[in-house]
């Protein structure tokens, strides 16, 4: 055998051996599962979650736990997806399963699950302790930075949240949702230019997703650039016609520019899209009132707001939000009808109701909410 042929055979064997060992060696994963199929479903679910496509995310995470019933982080993600779909029973079941598997995973996964459990149980002291442990042991872990940023945001510490999200982007530039959150944080600070700049970056890095355009539209709308906002909402709906968030936001922007009939029709479209996806439409009445208010229809606003107040049921999901919105828009309508004393009385009711809601919240969240 010639030397050339021998060297060729050895090279071929080396390539084959490398391929075989790569096949035997499990791929590097940041979550605990022994199923490649389950891991692929999990990654797909995360991608759908990042797009705010909760139904698709739920389906992917469901397939992940079917492929590997002991996949704790897939159960945790499934729980969060179900919560965003208003499936509270399914949320609790998935959380129970994730928590039952917490001793079978890595420490950072266990801490992540423990934190989610504490939040579920509204145990603020426990959640703070878990998060502190995560910061001490895994300060640069993306999960840690995401959770610390979210906690700071919820407590009204916007500059801390901004620093954490920016740090997370340095560590993992693929976390493009950070641009979205930074946009909203700057928006809350009243820095419209910085908010719009961050949300433009979000749209640049995710050109095929509707949410960046929806968020950018909200920033334009907050800054009073209604025509720009309308264009962004339309881009979002072009990418995904069933993205009801943008339809609802589009409706208020249309009403603000005097296109009230078109705005009403757009709310109807959003409600239909939500019903087809099996989603709760409890927020729709508030958007209908908002359209009438933004469209300077005070008599309609007053009538609809009062109807919402009379029909609100304490203890039902969204009760507090519905009541606050209805009373606020009632106050606006009364003011526009030159019934100033009644408008002030309505706003006093808003403040009184809000103080009651605030008093029931954990102290950690009262600052931001106030």
Structural key phrases:
370 residues, mainly alpha, disordered N terminus
Please characterize this protein's 3D structure.
- The chain has 370 residues and is an all-alpha fold.
- The chain has helices at 3-24, 36-50, 54-67, 72-84, 88-100, 107-120, 124-137, 142-154, 158-171, 177-188, 192-205, 210-222, 226-239, 244-256, 260-276, 284-294, 298-311, 319-336, 340-359, 363-369.
- α8 (142-154) packs antiparallel against α9 (158-171), α17 (298-311) packs antiparallel against α18 and α18 runs antiparallel to α19.
- The protein starts with a helix and ends with a helix.
- Mean pLDDT is 88; it is low at 1-28.
In short:
The chain has 370 residues and is mostly helical.
Sketch the topology as an H/E string, one letter per element: HHHHHHHHHHHHHHHHHHHH
Main pleated sheet: none
The general outline is: globular
Strand content: under 5%
Helical proportion, percent range: over 70%
Mean pLDDT score: 88
Terminal residue distance: 84 Å
The number of E-state strands comes to: 0
Number of discrete helical segments: 20
Structural category: mainly alpha
**pLDDT under 50 segments (min length 5)?**
1-28
Radius of gyration: 25 Å
């Amino acid at each position: 055998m010639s030397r050339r042929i021998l060297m060729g055979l050895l090279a071929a064997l080396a390539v084959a051996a490398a391929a075989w060992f790569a096949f035997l060696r499990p791929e590097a994963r940041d979550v605990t599962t022994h199923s490649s199929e389950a891991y692929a479903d999990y990654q797909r679910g995360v991608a759908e979650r990042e797009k705010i496509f909760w139904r698709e995310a739920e389906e992917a995470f469901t397939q992940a736990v079917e492929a590997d019933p002991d996949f704790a982080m897939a159960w945790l993600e499934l729980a969060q997806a179900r919560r965003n779909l208003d499936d509270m029973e399914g949320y609790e079941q998935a959380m129970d399963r994730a928590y039952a598997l917490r001793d079978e995973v890595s420490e950072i996964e266990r801490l992540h699950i423990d934190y989610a459990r504490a939040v579920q149980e509204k145990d603020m002291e426990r959640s703070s302790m878990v998060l502190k442990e995560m910061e001490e042991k895994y300060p640069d872990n993306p999960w840690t930075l995401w959770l610390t940023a979210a906690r700071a945001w919820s407590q009204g510490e916007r500059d801390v949240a901004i620093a954490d999200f920016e740090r997370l982007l340095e560590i993992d530039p693929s976390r493009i949702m950070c641009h979205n959150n930074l946009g909203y944080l700057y928006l809350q600070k009243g820095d419209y230019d910085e908010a719009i700049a961050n949300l433009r970056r979000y749209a640049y890095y995710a050109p095929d997703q509707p949410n960046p355009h929806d968020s950018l539209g909200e920033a334009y709308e907050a800054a009073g650039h209604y025509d720009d906002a309308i264009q962004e909402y339309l881009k979002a709906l072009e990418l995904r016609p069933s993205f009801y968030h943008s339809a609802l936001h589009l409706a208020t922007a249309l009403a603000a520019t005097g296109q009230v009939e078109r705005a009403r029709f757009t709310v109807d479209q959003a409600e239909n899209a939500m019903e087809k996806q099996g989603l709760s439409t409890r927020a729709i009445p508030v958007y209908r009132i908002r359209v009438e208010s933004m469209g300077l229809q005070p008599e309609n606003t007053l009538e609809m707001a009062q109807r919402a107040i009379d029909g609100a049921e304490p203890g039902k999901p969204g009760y507090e939000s519905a009541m606050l919105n209805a009373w606020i828009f009632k106050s606006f309508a009364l003011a526009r009808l030159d019934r100033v004393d009644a408008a002030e009385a309505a706003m006093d009711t808003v403040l009184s109701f809000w103080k009651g809601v605030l008093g029931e919240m954990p102290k950690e969240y009262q600052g931001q909410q106030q």
